[in-house]
Amino acid sequence: MTAIVIPVKPLESAKQRLSGVLTPVQRAELVLAMLHDILTVATAFREHRVWVVTRDKAVDDLARQHGAGVIPEVEVRGYNAAVDAGLQYLQTTHPEGTNVAVVPADVPMVTSEDLGRLTAACDTACSKVRLAPARDAEGTNGLFLSRTDLLQPVFGQNSYSRYRSQCRLAGLTPELLTDSSLGVDVDIDTDLQFLRARHACGNTGAYLSHLHSIGCTNAGLSLRKNTSNTLAADSWC
C-alpha cells in the first residue's frame, strides 16, 4: 500500500500569485475544482489510501466526500511543514513502515497511468525514490518514498534539484518521471492559459469554462474580477 498525501493550505490564502486575475472567491473555487479532479483519480486506487493535510473545513469536507482521510493541520507553517505533519502522522499510525507519495493539490490534469507510476508500491525495506518534476523542471509535483523517513521535505523553488542532491548525498538513484501529466500545475496566469489550450476536463475544465463565460480577457480566459462574495463550491465539486 502507498499512502498518497495531498497537502492543501487554507482557501483564503490559496493561489496568491493569481490575485491579479482572480478574486479570493474565484481562487478558492479553482482550488476546490482541482482538488476534486485529483481526488477522483487518486481514490480510484483501491490498493492505496489517500490523505489530505489541511485545516480548511471546505477542503476537509470535500476530502471526506471522496472517501479520503484527513490529517488535521494544527498550525499553518508552510507547505513543507504540512508534508512533514503528514509523514509524522503516517509514522505514528504505521510503525511497521509504509510507502508514501506526496502530490500537490494543483495538478488537475494528472492521469491514472501517471499517478500509478508514481505511487506503485514496493518493499519498505528498500530505499526507493521517485520524482516527478514540474513543467519548468524546477519544482517537484510528485514525490514517492519507500519509507516516510527516507528524505526531508524540501518542496518549493528549485526543489527538483534539491531532492536530487539529497538523493546523491544518501547514495540513492531516484527514478525520474519526466514528461508526466503531474508536471502541469497551476501557479500563474499562463498556467491557466496552458490548461485552456489543452482542453482541461473534469471540474477544473468546467470551472475555467465558467470563468470564460462570465466575460474574461486576462490570462487568455477573459478573466474578469468577480465581485461575488459567495463561495459556491458545490457548483464545481
What can you tell me about this protein's structure?
- This protein is α/β, with parallel strands linked by helices and 237 residues long.
- It has a single domain, classed as Spore Coat Polysaccharide Biosynthesis Protein SpsA, Chain A (Alpha-Beta Complex), CATH 3.90.550.10.
- It is 35% helix and 16% strand.
- The protein is built from 7 helices and 9 strands.
- The strands form 2 sheets. Strands 3-2-1-4-6-5-7 form a 7-stranded mixed β-sheet, sandwiched between helices. Strands 8-9 form a two-stranded parallel sheet.
- It is globular.
Looking at CATH, which topology would you report? Spore Coat Polysaccharide Biosynthesis Protein SpsA, Chain A
**What would you report as the Rg, rounded to the nearest angstrom?**
17 Å
* CATH arch. level architecture: Alpha-Beta Complex
* CATH homologous superfamily identity: Spore Coat Polysaccharide Biosynthesis Protein SpsA, Chain A
Q: What are the secondary-structure elements, in order, as H or E?
A: EHEHEHEHEEHEHHEE
Tally of extended strands?
9
Could you say which structural class the secondary elements and strand pairing correspond to?
Answer: alpha/beta
Going across the major beta sheet, what is the strand order?
3-2-1-4-6-5-7
SS field, number of helical segments? 7
Number of domains: 1
C-alpha end-to-end distance: 27 Å
Q: Helical content, roughly? A: 25-40%
Mean pLDDT: 91
The top-level CATH class is Alpha Beta
- Uncertain segments are 222-237
The global form is globular
Query: What does the largest sheet look like?
Result: 7 strands, mixed
Strand content: 15-25%
